[in-house]
Amino acid sequence: MTVARADPGPATPPSAAELLAPAAIEDPQLSPDGSRIVARIGAEGRLMLFDPNRPDLAAHPVALPQGERLEWVFWLAPGRLLASLTRDAAKPATRLVEIDVARGQFAQLGQARAAGRGEELLHIDRKAGFLLLKTRDRRRDTPSVWRIDLASGAATLAVAAQPHVQDWVVDGAGVVRAGVGAKDDKAWLVYRRGEADGFSREGNDVAGTDPEIAQFAPVQGSDQGYALAEAPSGRIGLYTYDFRAGRLGALVYENGKADLDGFELTPDGKPAGVAYTDDRDRMLWFDGAMRSRQAAIDAALPGRVNRVVSASDDQRELLVYSASASDPGAYYLFAGGQARRFAAINPALDGKLLAPVTTIHYAARDGLKIDGYLTLPAGRAAKDLPLIVMPHGGPFARDSWDYDPWVQYLAGKGYAVLQPNYRGSTGFGRAMTARGDGEWGRGMQDDVDDGVAWLARRGTIDAKRVCIMGASYGGYAAMWAAARDNRTYRCAISYAGISDVRAQLDYDHKTFEERAFRAWRARIQGKAPSLESISPVTYAGQLAMPILIAHGTADETVPVDQSERLHDALTRMGKAHEFVVYPGEDHTMRDPANEADFLQRVGRFLDAHNP
Fold first, then answer.
1. Which residues contact 53 (CB under 8 A, 6 or more apart)?
2. Please, are residues 58 and 107 in contact by the beta-carbon 8 Å criterion?
C-alpha cells in the first residue's frame, strides 16, 4: 500500500539558526580500497565509519577511549586507521594508535609524548612506513619535525626547532628540505639538499626577504624547485626556483587577471596545476589526466566549485567536495562519470529557499574597474529592491564566490546584497592592492558608494532604501558612512568595527617592528591631515542615521573599546543607537547561538529602519 505524503508546501528561506548550524560532517576520507569512509560527525566531532554503497548512510561509531580527544585520523590500510589522541590531564599527553575498524580495537604505537602545540601532519607514506609530524613543545616557540615509524611507533627527531623558523617544507620523498624564518620585517629561507646535510641560510636571503614569495616546493634529489612570486605585471605567478642560489628562474605560468593561490606537483616533480580565484575558486591542471578528471567532475556537478578531497588507491572512487555561493557544500562520491551525494555539510538547508549569487563589474568614479558579487532575493524580480551593501574586512583582503550565511539571511528577508571588491582588495595583483594605500574612508568608501549608484541606474535597487553593514574594516566603513554620509544610506550596522583609528594603531603598535609600523600607519593615513580626520568617532556629533553597533569582549584584533568609544560618544550626545556586546566572543563569531542572536537583531533593526 502506498501512503501519500503531505505536501511540504513552497520552499521558505532558512532561519538564522538553520543558516549557522555547525557542520554535520568534517574531514571525510575514503579507505584505500574505496569500501569505507571515515569522518567526524556533528558538533562533538564523533568518529564514524560509513559504507559508501549504503543509500541510508547507516554509520558505525568508533568509540574513543574515555578522556581522550581526536587530533587527526588517517587510513593506514583498508581495515586500519591511524589516529592521534590527546589526553587532557594534569600532564597532557599525546599518543598514536592503530584502530582495527572491524573489531574496534586500539593498539598504541610507540610511547606517549608530552602534548605539543599545533601538531600538524606534514607527510605520510604508507608504502615506506613513516610519517612526519610538526609540533611545538612547551619550551619553544618554534616547531620541530618528528619522524614516526608506522610499524613500531618509534619517534626520531627529523629536524630540530630553529629560532624564528615557523614553517618547514617537505619534498615528495618526505625529506624536510627548507624552512621559512621571519623576524620583524625580515624573512629568510634555510635549505639543505638531503637528510645528510645541514641547513644553510647562505645565498637565500634575497628570496626570503621578498614577502611576495609565498610558497616553495623543492623537487626530490635536486636543488631546483618551484615558487610563487610576483611577476612583472604585479600578479603572483609560478616560477622555477633555485634553492641553492636562492634565486627565481623562468616564469612557468601567470593568470591574466588573478594572483595564484597555490600549486601542486606531480610525483616526478613537474607542475601538475595551479589554484587561483578570479570570480570564483578555480584549479587549472597542466597534467592531462588531472585535467580530464576535473572536466568529468565539473560536467557531473555543473555550476559549482568542485575539489577532490580523497581517493581510493586505484583512483576509481573519488570523494568530492562541491559547493557554491548559495550552498555551504556537500560531499559526493564520484565514479564512472557519475556523482552521488554522500552527505551535506548543513542538512538543515535541504529544501530551503536560498538566493543566487552572481558576479558583477562596474566602474568607479575614476574609471577603476571594480569586481564584486550581487545576491538577489529568490523569487523576486530584480527591480526596485531594498539593498544592503556589505564591504569586506581587511581591508587588504577580498570577497569570493563563497557561501556566506549573513548574505543568505539578508536575502531571505528580501534584500539585495552587494559585496564589492573595492580598491585595496587582494588577489588581483599589486596595482589593485596599492590603490588602497591612503584610501581609508576615501577612495575605498567611494568605490562602495559607486556600486550603489550603479545598481540604482540599472533599476535593480531603490536608491532610497539602502543600508550598509560590515565587520572589522567593513564595520569601520559602516560607522564612517553613518557619521559622514546622510545621502546614500538609511542605516548602518557594524560588528567589530574601528571607530578611533589612532587608538587602533596604538593597540597594533606592539605587534610591529618600528619601521614596519611607520609604513603601516602611512599606508592608512595617506594624505589625510590626521588620523582623527578619518576616525568615525570624531564625527559622532554629525551622525544622523540609525546605527547598530556590536562587538565581542574577547576580540584581540580590534578591541571592544573601539565600539565602546562610539557608543559612549553617542550616549553623551543623546543620539539614539543600538549597542550590544557578546561576552567571550573573538573578532569572528565562534558561538552559533551568539551569531544567530546578532543576525536576528540585524533583522529587527532593518525591519524598523529599512523595511
1. none
2. no
Give the three cell numbers for residue 384: 526596485
- pLDDT tens track for 231-244: 999 999 999 999 98
Q: Answer whether residue 117 is part of any domain.
A: no
Total residue length of the chain: 611
Q: Say if CB 252 and CB 226 are below 8 A apart.
A: yes
Tens-place pLDDT, residues 389-410: 999 999 999 999 999 999 999 9
Given its phi and psi angles, is residue 475 left (phi above 0), alpha (psi -120 to 50 degrees) or beta?
alpha
Domain range spanning residue 362?
357-609
Asked if residue 600 is part of any domain, the answer here is yes
- What are the C-alpha distances in Å from 476 to residues 173, 221, 236, 511, 529? 48, 51, 29, 21, 19
CATH code at position 383: 3.40.50.1820
The β-bridge partners of 494 are 470, 549
Cis link prior to 395 (omega < 30° from 0)? yes
pLDDT tens-place string over residues 255-288: 999 999 999 999 889 999 999 999 999 999 999 9
Phi and psi, residue 201, nearest 5° = -100, -10
Angstrom distance (rounded) from CA 397 to CA 199: 34
Q: Can you tell me the distance from the alpha carbon of 348 to that of 333, in angstroms, rounded to the nearest whole number?
A: 21
